[in-house]
Each structure stands twice: as structure tokens, then as C-alpha cells.
Amino acid sequence: MMMPAANEAVERYNEQLDWQTLEPITREQLSHYTGSDGGNIYVAIRGLVYDVSENRDKYGPEKPYHVFVGKDSTRLLGLNKLRLGNGAARYDACGRSADPGYPEHSTFYTDDFGEKEHNAVNKWEEYFRKRYPIVKVLVDATSNDR
């Protein structure tokens, strides 16, 4: 199946992008890119920020994948979950654990990932790189985020 030309252009753009030239963004700043004010919608994976605004019908407020926006959602994607734990949010708007003693409650924590989870994240990264432009890089991301 051929991908639409727009996706090919985005994929080519992402392949040629020098990540070191990307504008930095903090987790706090990223948490404001949720589309709730009609603005851009960003999702981060392993510290790279993708602009998913063109797919507002899936990532916008009240939409199925809105849980991933405004934060680095690496852990959620690696575990193929929309929520961590028992469904109650255990992380703040930036995706950080509400309890520092439980880093696995962060949406970006991957220290406990095995091969299966890392492979899942790799597939999601590939999916996003083919469809959405990389627009920023998290500056307070840990080396584990990438």
C-alpha cells in the first residue's frame, strides 16, 4: 500500500532533520500543547516531539488518543496502554510520577523495559516519523528517554 504524498514528504523531512538544530522544549512547556485552546497538539516519544495537530480528530480534546498529548508518552506506547496502573492518573500534566518513589508511574520511564517493550516503542517511533513532523526536542529529557 502506498502512503499519501504528504506522508512521504514528512518522512523525508524527518530523515533529513538534524535533531541538534531543533528548538528545545521543557516538559512543562510541552504540557501546554494539548489543542485545548485550538492550538498545536504535540506528542513526544523518547524526547522527540511530534506535531500531530493535523490529526485533531484522534488527538484533540475528548478524542481517543488525547491521553498521549502534551507529554512524553514513551512508556504508555511501549506498554500499549492508554493508562498506567489501575486507571487512575498517577502522573502530573507533564507525565512525571506523582510519587517520586514510583518512577514507573511516569509516562516516559523505560528503565524496566525489556526487548518486547523497546520493540513496541521502536514501531511507534517509526509510525510517527512517517506521519508527523518532528518539531522540538525535550531539554529535560533523560538519556533514558531517547
TrEMBL record:
SUPFAM superfamilies under this entry?
Answer: Cytochrome b5-like heme/steroid binding domain
Q: Where is the Cytochrome b5 heme-binding domain?
A: 25-98
One protein family per Pfam: Cyt-b5
| Highest taxon of the lineage | Eukaryota
GO CC terms, sorted? endomembrane system; membrane
Xref: InterPro entries: Cyt_B5-like_heme/steroid-bd, Cyt_B5-like_heme/steroid_sf, MAPR/NEUFC/NENF-like
Record-stated family:
Belongs to the cytochrome b5 family. MAPR subfamily.
* Protein name (record): Cytochrome b5 heme-binding domain-containing protein
- Supply the source organism for this entry: Diutina rugosa
